[in-house]
Design goal:
With 388 residues, the protein is mainly α. Helices cover 79% and strands 0% of the residues. It is built from 18 helices and no strands.
Length: 388
Amino acid sequence: MQLKGLISLSFGTLSLGITEFVAMGLLPYIAADFSISLASAGHFVSAYALGVAAGAFSLLFLRRLKLKTILLLLIIVHIVGNALTVAATSFPALITARFIAGLPHGCYFGVGSIIAQRLCEKGKGSSAVSIMVAGMTMANIFGVPLGTALAEIVSFKAIYVLTVIWGVIVLFSCHRWVQDVGRIEDTGFKGQFKFLRSPAPWLVLGATLFGNAGIFCMQSYISPILTDLAGFKLQTVPAVLIAMGICMVISNFISGRLCDRFSPGKVGAGVQFTAIILLLAIAACGHMPWVCVILVCLTAGALFALSSPEQVSILRTSPGGLLLGAAMIQAAFNLGNALGTTSGGIPFIFSISPRFITVIGALWALLGFICLFLYARKWEKHFSDEIR
């Protein structure tokens, strides 16, 4: 396993993770700075997610380039997008910048997952992907709480200044340490779509869309859940975000190991069912402060325990169309984020208890579980275990 290359990839996901997930704790500050409602500030999250979905499909037109070349181009766009976020002086300009910043996100994870699989030995694909994804989990330990703290002290834009600087470091490290793993097989533009004739990739995509929508109902509105439901002060949120990040790191690595030993579909289905129970438990017991903290941390862990199973599953079910499959899983992931953020804001629109945020989330998570259960039970056994 080429550890230096995988760690360099994880540096990139760390930067992407900070850029995306720091918004969870910034919504109250954005709403205050631009004199808008909390529900409107939620578009800061949605704009990024929609950018991810739109940008992911550009991989179809980059399929003839070397994977490493694509990776470096994506990092450059990431740096530019964050610089525009810092420079934005109005909310429409901020939303536009966030959309641009989101464009390379899905492509990076898609290309990175394929590279990670090629950098490891047989039977270690899920663990390799989990190392790459680890940067996202670390973002929730360091980057997200740091961004929230800086927003309290300086400005919500301060963290994006740091991501521009870190992005330059990522560009250097990936250029230096990620090996050239060549190109993928070019099956032509139409050939990229043939794998979609099977129900299997659609079930994986559906599980990703609905499962992430469910958890992001909670994730995007973690501040009001902790303050309005559990009764914590806003200044407590960064500490809880650190605890959530630790759970993400642990669950990500455990999930990767389990997927190498068992099937990704079965592991994912088990995690998704657990997420349903946790979301309903937050709705029922979230008014008890420390119980709420434990439940939101475990639910956050479920988010990244699902990441490796879903990433590996889509690569296994998209022969001849790896880049398209990798792009679509990221589009599904971030459309799920946008769906969760939008639907999670409904309780604020109707001025009802924030406990209903996770009730809505549980309904989405149930749909995700059904998709993964059907995939693991009927379709998973028909696909190769390795992506080479």
